[in-house]
Specification:
Radius of gyration: 26 Å
CATH architecture of the largest domain: 2-Layer Sandwich
Number of strands: 6
CATH class of the largest domain: Alpha Beta
Strand content: 5-15%
Shape: elongated
Largest sheet: 3 strands, antiparallel
Number of helices: 7
Strand order of the largest sheet: 1-6-5
Number of domains: 2
């Protein structure tokens, strides 16, 4: 599975940014206390953690402690520290850097989750409003197709009426993916090849299926997004079922 470019850049920054910062602080090592130099490196760790991820933050903390030792403490250009106070400062830099980096990454994760939850809720409410406003089942299906492309980051999505033909990989209502009767390890293996079906079911009645094509090499969305996709398919199924019932009553 392809690693996102953002994560690759974040990890690289976690290793290199403290090194560059330590080099930039070289002219100050004789005029600024070692404690203040360590605090400036902590700022770099926080910046990497806020813009990257947990791994990048941890690497930044380790890199900051190492280069603080190498450039700011005697003997210079060596990973050996003679002064006990410098040893304590280096250890504190590592510990504080690790703690702060994890807190920053956690805060960023919580913000991303909150934004994603609000977006998912709006997708579901938007589809519900369309159905309640008298939109046809075709309109609801079209809306759900568009939402699935966005929420699952698909290359394309189409809806197929009628009976089930073939056994493509299937996204189930619980967010898992079935391939030939087996649960597919989505996190480790990525999306299976080819189209993936998402059945539109309501009250046990099959109304059709969405056939989804992920973008090549794309990272599968989290479980929350897959559950939203299943709920959207259920809304399309409900609209189709309501139209079928109305047509039966008129005939």
């Amino acid at each position: 599975m392809r690693v996102p470019l953002r994560d690759t850049v974040a990890v690289a920054a976690g290793v290199l940014a403290p090194f560059v910062a330590a080099l930039a602080l070289l002219p100050l090592r004789t005029s600024v206390t070692h404690t203040n130099l360590a605090l400036l490196l902590v700022v770099v760790v926080v910046a990497v953690s806020a813009l990257g991820n947990r791994l990048a933050g941890a690497l930044a903390a380790l890199s900051a402690a190492a280069w603080f030792d190498f450039f700011a403490t005697a003997p210079y250009q060596s990973f050996h520290i003679q002064d006990r106070a410098d040893v304590e400062t280096a250890v504190l830099l590592l510990v504080v850097g690790l703690i702060v980096s994890q807190l920053a990454a956690y805060g960023r994760t919580m913000k991303r989750v909150a934004v994603a939850d609000a977006t998912h809720l709006e997708r579901l409410h938007g589809t519900t409003r369309l159905a309640r406003a008298g939109g046809s089942s075709a309109d609801v299906v079209r809306r759900v197709r568009q939402e699935l492309v966005e929420v699952l980051e698909l290359r394309s999505c189409r809806f197929e009426y009628g009976t089930l033909i073939g056994r493509p990989p299937r996204l189930d209502p619980d967010g898992s993916v079935q391939v030939e009767g087996w649960v597919w390890d989505l996190e480790r293996q990525g999306w299976p090849e080819g189209e993936i079906e998402l059945r539109a079911l309501v009250h046990g009645r099959y109304q059709g299926r969405f056939l989804m094509t992920p973008a090549p090499g794309s990272v599968p969305p989290p479980l929350e997004a897959r559950l939203v996709a299943a709920d959207l398919a259920a809304q399309a199924a409900a609209a189709l079922d309501e139209d079928a019932v109305s047509a039966a009553r008129r005939s």
